[in-house]
From TrEMBL:
GO terms for biological process: carbohydrate derivative metabolic process. The keyword Transcription regulation applies. This is RpiR family transcriptional regulator. One of its GO terms (molecular function) is DNA-binding transcription factor activity. Residues 100-239 form the SIS domain. The keyword Ligase does not apply. Keywords: DNA-binding, Transcription, Transcription regulation. It comes from Lactobacillus gallinarum. InterPro entries: Homeodomain-like_sf, HTH_RpiR, RpiR-like, RpiR-like_SIS, SIS_dom, SIS_dom_sf, WH-like_DNA-bd_sf. Residues 1-75 form the HTH rpiR-type domain.
Amino acid sequence: MAIFDFNNLSSLSDVELSVYRFVVNNPEKVAYMRVRDIAKKTHVANSSVMRFVHKIGFASFPEFKAYLKNINQTVAPQKALTFIDQQNFPNDIENKLRVVADQLYQSDNIPIMGTGNSASTAVYAARMLALLGFNAFPITDPFYPLNRQLENTSNNTIICFSVSGETTELIEQLNYCTKRSDNQVVAITSNPTSTIANISKYVLNYQEHKQRLFKYCDLSSQIPAMYIVEGLVEILIGKNQDLIKQKQDQEKEKEHE
């Protein structure tokens, strides 16, 4: 566990390393301990603790403790595995998922679009649907001639992943594709009033705090979109199982005739 901006561990003596290990494994406790308490716990002299504190870049022991308290206050309250729940989705999300799953189930072709971080989600969704036997394929190149590819096809459902719902290249692609009535669009986005959502016949929306580093580095989570993918897959698995059972029942009826 690295809590200090200190990378030169080889410069620490064996005694100082024992203090280092104790501190990084017990930052909450050490923040309220005295020098002699740390020395007692690590079986070293008080002077060894102070040498360690100075060597890792602190001018004094109080400065060292203040740093640890700040780290604890910043990091400890975060719960990394509880950042998504029902509040991330609208109340009618279950019904919307079933409607979209029905649409996908009846589709002949399912192109799945996404750029940037959403491209990875599109690839995952396409693979999962392909595993279920659907003709699903990812489109991660915003300039891919999808409209031309779908010219001689029918009954297509295009899934479009976009956090903002305002990706210019995707909007241009969808505008071409929706000129034909047999191309239906499903938007999976955090912005239900976006341009892409308005173009689409179906909208599976979620709430997600948009985070950007500088201008073009999108750090927004893809987890809500992945939840939606998993929800669709689960429903479609159930539909496949129902179809298999129906066929088995029909075969049994023929055997008894």
